[in-house]
Amino acid sequence: DAGVIQSPRHEVTEMGQEVTLRCKPISGHNSLFWYRQTMMRGLELLIYFNNNVPIDDSGMPEDRFSAKMPNASFSTLKIQPSEPRDSAVYFCASTRSGDTGELFFGEGSRLTVL
Amino acid sequence: GDSVTQMEGPVTLSEEAFLTINCTYTATGYPSLFWYVQYPGEGLQLLLKATKADDKGSNKGFEATYRKETTSFHLEKGSVQVSDSAVYFCALSGSYNTDKLIFGTGTRLQVFP
Questions:
Q1: Cβ-based contacts of A49 with chain B (< 8 Å)
Q2: CB-CB: which of A56, A106, A107 is closest to B100?
Q3: Chain A contact set for B89 (CB, 8 A)
Q4: Residue B95 above 80 pLDDT?
Q5: What's residue B96's pLDDT?
Q6: Are B2 and B27 in contact (CB under 8 A)?
Q7: CB nearest A43 (choices: B49, B89, B100)
Q8: Is A56 exposed, middle or buried (0-12, 13-18, 19+ CB in 10 A)?
Q9: Of B65, B62, B58, which Cα lies nearest the Cα of B19?
């Protein structure tokens, strides 16, 4: 079975540009998480979906960030406009609700905003 | 609220040395506890878990025991290898939402031959 698939793996963009990160969760998983990892702040939960519905978006930094999950097999995280401080590795993870703690992570999208 | 505190890194060891990475937690309910590992350039992956007090999780020679009396879940390995070099994260499941994990800040382990 394929794991969590994220794209792009690497993105370099200039300040002010729109960035869209994509995630395909594991088939059959109904909970999806977006995390951001930086040296300074560690691993931060940005938003969490259950059955395609956003449950907790308290970690979304500001209005420049938005996330969608139009169906069970696809999610996007968008940053518009991007800023240098958004540079980080963004991870998507999925699980089957109730399988406590068995989060499956993608390989991450490394974003660099110049 | 619920939280996890783990020891600062990096932890630097020689091959075959004994490893301990400390983790303590604060929780209002009865969470499950986890250790995740992140190898360079990869996402996190579950290393081991324990779902109730006195449970011992183990995998790949690593062990951790859920100690309710000391609110701890320390990670141990008797003899580390160079291939164990990675970042280790302690985590707990939220008291009210068990799907949502709360992670510690991570501890980097460097093992030298």
A1: none
A2: A56
A3: 43
A4: no
A5: 64
A6: yes
A7: B89
A8: middle
A9: B62
